[in-house]
Known about the structure:
Elements: H1 3-18, H2 24-28, H3 35-44, H4 48-57, H5 66-98, E1 103-105, H6 108-111, E2 126-130, H7 135-144, E3 148-150, E4 157-161, E5 167-171, H8 179-185, E6 192-194, E7 201-204, H9 206-222, H10 228-240, H11 245-254, H12 258-273, H13 279-291, H14 297-308, H15 311-319, H16 323-329, H17 340-350, H18 354-366, H19 371-384
Parallel strand pairs: 1-7, 2-5
Antiparallel strand pairs: 1-2, 3-4, 4-5, 6-7
Helix pairs in contact: 1-3, 1-4, 3-5, 4-5, 9-10, 9-11, 10-12, 12-13, 14-15, 14-18, 14-19
Amino acid sequence: xxxxxxxxxxxxxxxxxxxxxxxxxxxxxxxxxxxxxxxxxxxxxxxxxxxxxxxxxxxxxxxxxxxxxxxxxxxxxxxxxxxxxxxxxxxxxxxxxxxxxxxxxxxxxxxxxxxxxxxxxxxxxxxxxxxxxxxxxxxxxxxxxxxxxxxxxxxxxxxxxxxxxxxxxxxxxxxxxxxxxxxxxxxxxxxxxxxxxxxxxxxxxxxxxxxxxxxxxxxxxxxxxxxxxxxxxxxxxxxxxxxxxxxxxxxxxxxxxxxxxxxxxxxxxxxxxxxxxxxxxxxxxxxxxxxxxxxxxxxxxxxxxxxxxxxxxxxxxxxxxxxxxxxxxxxxxxxxxxxxxxxxxxxxxxxxxxxxxxxxxxxxxxxxxxxxxxxxxxxxxxxxxxxxxx
Length: 390
């Protein structure tokens, strides 16, 4: 990502979301040719619709130009995505309440009300949390309303699709299989409340909502990246939502995420608050921007090498996946741990499937990092506050 790209993309997001016009300097030096890079990067981070709104707000749209049409199309798509998901959320609320299933909406469904326009906070799916003991009943009720289940129960959710094709992740836990953050995430129901007696919808406290977002960011961060949008979420919520900073920090302290929280806020202030870069924010920006919403294989492999202690140990970890990870893929292992070596072989054969094989090859290619680069990444994780998240 070159300088011309990021000197445009962040001011345009800031202008669209916070209402601040971009500077005359940016307008005067605005280069249409660089806008293709801006579109590609913003599309990769699922914020092209916001950048497009910023262009329109500042009078920089040109009707006849193809790249502007791409931005315009992203805006229209974002509005349609919101209307479709919002309809499904209201339907889902009624289905679960009528079925007397306590539930809690998560992430985008809650965050978007803090954006100036709800369609600006896009989501690929709907995330809902229910108690594990009511999961089977919830799935049964949803299937009775023509939801279709895809796959089996996995580590933290069941995947379903509504009659209109909207993806629902029905969570029974918020845990990410990372012990240090999971010990707080599993307390979510202790940090929840209802608006009134008799309701079945629960809400996270504002402090826990922020903690959950930070914990989710930290998980994606070490898996290859977490995207510009996650930083925008934190910036908007901390500026517009009432919360107790001390209570949030207590949750972060318990999960060793305080330093990460500080660094997330620092980069968000650079991107959206007008603060100056320093060495660590520049490093983090480079890591995040090249990763997109869900990170890259290259980032993921490099972080894994840094955490495991080198290339060889990382490969061995990938070949002989630990029992604690393998048991969530093969449920029989929860009762028969002694079958672990057998399921290593089963998993190896599963890697021959086309899509999985392509990713495995990409991981092997990405594994060719120098020892110096691996050490730099380990140092970076320590600086950003995630050395303990393994």
